[in-house]
Amino acid sequence: MAVCAIVAAIITTVAWRKARERANRAESLRAELSNQLTQAYELPQVASSLGVPKRVAMVYNPSKAATDQAMPLVMQACGLFGLSEPKLYETDPDDSGFAAVQRAKDDGAQLVVVTGGDGTVRAAAKALMSSDVQMGIIPTGTGNLLARNLHLPINDVQACISIAFNGVVRPIDVISLDMLYADGTRENMVSVVIAGAGYDAEIMHSTSDRLKAAAGWLAYTEAGVRNLRGKRHAVTISTDDGESKRYRLRSAMIANCGYLTGGINMVPEAAIDDGLLDVALLDPRHLVDWIQVATAALKPKTKSPRVTTFQARSCKMVFEEPLVAQIDGDPIPKTKEIVAKNIPDSLQVRVPLPKTPNERE
Fold first, then answer.
1. Domain boundaries, the chain
2. Per-residue pLDDT for 10 more than 70?
3. By the 8 A CB rule, do 315 and 253 touch?
4. Domain DAGKc spans what residues (predicted)?
5. Given this model, what pLDDT does residue 34 score?
6. How open is the CA angle 168-173-176, to the nearest 5 degrees?
7. Residue 82: φ, ψ to 5°
8. Nearest 5 degrees, angle CA 50-CA 57-CA 83?
């Protein structure tokens, strides 16, 4: 009988503990659900306090696979914040999104969420610069250069959408570029990261689209190695202080900020909101120089002696012979002349909230 009593006591204790655990889980789920419902109820007020614009547009590149994931999440975010459904604008391959963003702006959008690669982001920047319309970025390209420089979570669509609605607004500079092409035509472009002519552009022009689809940004490495050997080019550069100087080099770049793919910081001193553009001139002569340039680019605040840099508010580059060129990683026609000017704080971009002291540690 004593044994039976002990067994009964054990069974009773186990049953009581299981019942207690179930009750605790139920209470935990009830509290979590209550918290979620409270947050959902309060989100419109939270949106107002965060300054989330009421009229949202989404401009998207339909060729990007992540678009199908992003679109319902943007709609869901608008619903949670008590906003009207976003207006949707599809980009056109002929202009990479400028016309779509301009339509969104003309229709009264206060926040344009841009889903696409560097070309789409740059087209959006051109349409939105010098306006009060804010831009959120969902990077879906190969390089995603502006997103990297703004410390957006490149491979997390949902987190980028959260930043577009919950982040803070950061004014950044835009570089205006007046281009004179080899055929004599002129065009005004903008850059938000780096524009250049010479070796850097040769990489962009010769990178295989098929390899980019398969290997992502690593495809640029293959093109970079393939184009290491090449001749130097003559360029005359004048800045806003009136100084004019002739150089012979492999690559001439105009930077708004310096981070590229693969952890490379091509122009460490470049700041995206300092009102200045940074000119970087690469002149490696042989393989050892190239290794030195690459090593310096991978180390914070390290500069190679084969890279000359200086800052200015504007500059003019005249090439002795037309060179292939690129803007923010996208190839453009051979260029004879570039006139660049920094337009300070001209683009309003949604970026992550600043880290707290504990998060920095």
1. 50-166, 174-344
2. no
3. no
4. 51-181
5. 45
6. 145
7. 70, 25
8. 50
Q: In a 3-state reduction of DSSP, which class is residue 240?
A: coil
Superfamily (CATH) of domain 50-166: Probable inorganic polyphosphate/atp-NAD kinase; domain 1 (3.40.50.10330)
Q: What is the dihedral of CA 88, 93, 99, 103, to 10 degrees?
A: -10
The answer to whether 135 touches 167, Cβ cutoff 8 Å, is: no
Residue with tokens 């349409």: 127
Which residues have a Cβ under 8 Å from the Cβ of 313 and sit 6 or more positions away?
240, 275, 276, 277, 341, 342
Higher pLDDT, 70 or 301: 70
- 71 vs 59: CA distance, rounded Å: 10
Residue range 174-344 forms a domain whose CATH class is: mainly beta
Q: Which value, to the nearest 10 degrees, does the dihedral of the CA atoms of residues 67, 68, 69, 70 take?
A: 40
pLDDT tens per residue across span 179-189: 999 999 999 99
Going by pLDDT thresholds of 50, 70 and 90, the confidence category of residue 346 is: very high
How far is 326 from 66, CA to CA, in rounded Å? 25
Higher local confidence (pLDDT), 94 or 355: 94
pLDDT for 63: 82
Residue with tokens 């939105």: 128
206, 226 Cβ separation under 8 angstroms: yes
Phi/psi region, residue 199 (left: phi>0; alpha: psi -120 to 50; beta: rest), is: alpha
The rounded Cα 313 to chain-centroid distance in angstroms is 23
Q: Are strands 134-139 and 56-60 parallel, antiparallel or unpaired?
A: unpaired
Report whether 195 contacts 177 (CB < 8 A). yes
pLDDT of amino acid 274: 95
Closest CA to 284 of 242, 232, 234: 232
Which of 267, 138, 134, 273 has its CA nearest to residue 192?
273
Q: What is the mean pLDDT of residues 295-299?
A: 67
The CA-to-CA distance between both ends of the chain, in Å, stands at 62
